Amino acid sequence: MIKGTASTLPTPELLASSGPSPALQRLRTPDEELPAFDLGVSALEDKAQSRLPECWGHRGASASYPENTKASFIEACKQGADGIETDIHITSDNVLVLFHDPKLDRTTDGKGRIREQPWHGMLEHVRTKQAPVQPIPLFTEVLDIMLYLGNERVKLNLDCKVDNDAEKLFGLVRSVIARYDKWEQLLAPRIILGLWHPKFLGPAAHHLPYLPRYAISMSPADARRFFWDSVHGFSVYYEALATPDGQKFLAECRSHGKGVCAWTVNTREGMRECVRWGLGSCITDKPDMWREVKAEFQNDYYRAVKPTLQTYLLPFVNKKAWWFDIAKQTKEERQYLEKEGGKFEGWEGFKVGLQIARAE
After folding, report:
1. What residues contact 268, with CB distance under 8 A and at least 6 apart?
2. Which of 105, 121, 161, 338 is the most exposed place for a label (fewest CB within 10 A)?
């Protein structure tokens, strides 16, 4: 429930929507009938199934709708996603928008850098190239979706792009979510900050102590070296996690209570591997595929979790899993992050507290 005047910006019809939004209604958890208690095999299976990773829709349900749009976010929820992963940028007039690239050109009819253009009179009119044509969503719009009746448990993984000014970004995020009544209870526990650069750690902890922090990385070594003591979990490139060092890193996270998420997992076998690895979450363009894989585990967990021939062959036939390809992409990613955000060196000893503030 936002305090103040709601936006009057017209939005095209959203084909993924199933009706008017009750976003501003008071939330109430529907009554649920408790299942019968059972000490037999079903109890063991329930315990095993409780270990299934959460599914976070990558830029929404981006295999079905234009990425990072309101329609894509709604569709991800309809397909059964446990969370929405999206990216955030600041416009030149300090409006928070959800968009992946620093520039508009790849996915929209607009051109140029987002941070150099205002929302009002400019970016509000930009539309996606892909149909159904959509506007760029505001940060407030995904928060509203999280408050739709039925979405009370949907999480938001906010990928904080390195080209943002960290102090300004987290200050604006704080001011926006604070407009919602009871945001500390209804929103804060469900928003996860994804950080690419260690210089974002301090501002994130200062402005948003209510929100858990995940380091995003293609390199387990960099994640361990620059973020370990200051984050609650890690969002790591799936192919990097499949390497020997990735598996060692995963074991270290497990022993220290760190959450681990893998991205971007768009194959059934990859999703099954996320279960076998005991991950907390996986990011996918295809929440509907995850729903089908999840059903396999719910129907017969021990059969579904058993490795197959495909499990062993996949690392050899998947080019992205070859060590030299991972090394190349990791190097390029690090170069980009340091170009936009400055050198990582010198941040090794920096720490911020892990205690998450809770409102009374």
Report:
1. 289, 292, 293
2. 121
Q: How many domains does the chain have?
A: 1
Q: Write the DSSP symbol of residue 181.
A: T
Which is it for strands 96-98 and 155-160: parallel, antiparallel or unpaired?
unpaired
Q: Decide if 122 is inside a domain.
A: yes
15 inside domain = no
Q: Are 154 and 27 in contact (CB under 8 A)?
A: no
Residue 37 is assigned to a structural domain of this protein: no
CA atoms of 46 and 16, how far apart (whole Å) = 32
Q: What are phi and psi of 229, to 5 degrees?
A: -85, 0
Q: How far apart are CA 312 and CA 129, in angstroms?
A: 39
pTM: 0.86
CATH label of the domain that carries residue 93: 3.20.20.190
Q: Please give the chain's pLDDT, 360 residues, in tens.
A: 454 444 444 434 444 444 433 333 333 333 333 333 333 334 444 555 568 999 999 999 999 999 999 999 999 999 999 999 999 999 999 999 999 999 999 999 999 999 999 999 999 999 999 999 999 999 999 999 999 999 999 999 999 999 999 999 999 999 999 999 999 999 999 999 999 999 999 999 999 999 999 999 999 999 999 999 999 999 999 999 999 999 999 999 999 999 999 999 999 999 999 999 999 999 999 999 999 999 999 999 999 999 988 888 877 888 888 899 999 999 999 999 999 999 999 999 999 999 998 755
* Alpha-carbon dihedral sign for residues 287, 70, 200, 357: negative
CA end-to-end distance (rounded Å), the chain: 19
Residue 159 lies in a domain: yes
Contacts of 36 (CB under 8 A, 6+ apart): none
Residue type, 346: G
